[in-house]
Recover the amino acids of this structure.
């Protein structure tokens, strides 16, 4: 058994929001793209806080690099 953690959920949500950013940019809806970026930052921050120095953080960092241009 493994303990319940919100990290897996946060990574899924981050990936979903990240995948939608470019679509809204192409549609010219920059407000929605910004909203998605803000949500993405929130989920990456959650992973950093709950699972530092783990593979989860590495995945979150890669999502951030690809979609937030960190």
């Amino acid at each position: 058994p493994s303990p319940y953690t919100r990290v897996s959920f946060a990574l899924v949500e981050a990936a979903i929001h990240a995948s939608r950013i470019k679509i809204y940019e192409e549609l010219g809806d920059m407000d929605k793209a910004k909203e998605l970026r803000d949500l993405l930052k929130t989920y990456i921050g959650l992973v950093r806080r709950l699972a530092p120095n783990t593979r989860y953080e590495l995945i979150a960092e890669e999502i951030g690099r690809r979609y937030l241009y960190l």
The chain has a mean pLDDT of 93. The chain has three helices and no strands. Residues 48 and 54 are 9 Å apart (CA to CA). Helices lie at 7-26, 30-50, 55-67.
